[in-house]
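FW: tagging you since you asked about this chain on Friday. Here's the raw sequence from the shared folder, copied in full. Didn't touch anything.
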Amino acid sequence: MTPAARVHTAIEILDAIAAAARDGGPPADAIFAEAMRARRYAGSKDRRAIRNHVYDAIRGVRSAPVSGRAAMLALADADAELAALFDGAAYGPAVITADEPRAETGLATPALLKLFDPLVGKAERAAMLARAPLDLRANRLRSSRDELARIFPEGEAIAGLADGWRLPGETAAVQHSAYTEGQFEVQDAASQLAAVALAAEAGHIIVDLCAGAGGKTLAIASAINDEAAILACDTNRARLQQLPPRANRAGATRIETLLLNPGQERAMLADRMGKADRVIVDAPCSGSGTWRRSPELRWRSTPARLDRHVAEQAKLLRLGADLVAPGGKLLYAVCSIIAREGRAQVDDFLTRHPGWTADTDYLPTGVGRAAGGGFLLTPAHDGCDGFFLARLTAP
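HL: got it, structure written out here
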């Protein structure tokens, strides 16, 4: 493919990604992969160049553009070499005209920026779209961080995490046999810290109320050496079905899964009420803390979607609280830097649940910053995804 043809292909893919963002369609990675399957003639260099164009545009443009061309033009206006490829040649993009629409660049729209937690200042905003490293978590049931250091000597330890090992973002770690053998999982440091913050112990009864594919469930099982019963729940069958084979690979034998029917969660968990020593609510959220990895999430953010997330989070917190035994602990976690999903959500919970208290000492020294009744983790301050954590103790 010519350089101009690569740009034209990137524009076509951006059209599909923008449409999916507006309509709640598949994520950008899935769209890109499907587009490349349909273009088998593209070589590895072509694919890499096209991907760079696509993701440079996604990172550069603050909201879903009217077209893929508008997104690329926003970059071309600041890049003469890119602009020169809009030459009207065969298979390339048409020549640029001055009156064409351009997408707006920046981190996010002013309305979205106003929703950020007050701790997210200029330095944090600059780090929100930097390329993320690849974080691994050593699985204590199969391996150790020392073993990861031997396998991946180019990495480094993650501060505050006994099992964390950080690699350059482009490392193909999952292709190593150690991954197939269950020696490690790919997991951002913030998610690893959530498992640490839960402070689960051997013999505990643990409920992971929004387990998804089980990343945090497996981290908890590893931390307690598979010495406690864990109930992993979710309403998403496709995601939850990924957990049993992952647990088998990891050597975690005491994880039970429960597929919950939406709207019937409380009834299906009735026999578990008031019995759990630890409950983790890793609630659905805007995903604003993960923009380094999924920058197109900025394009999906709408007031209506945020309202739905906030309402669902409050419902899950109430359900999680009812599952906790007297004196037990509830960990609330969201990969978000938006105050409504973090500190405001916990403040509201504490107001509505007299007797519950917010813990203050459960993260490694220097990690996170106090944000209301919880802690905010951010890329610039903590070197991880944006995350809000709050550990609450039942009366």
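FW: DSSP finds 18 helices and 13 strands in the chain.
HL: agreed, and The chain has a mean pLDDT of 96.
FW: great, closing this out.
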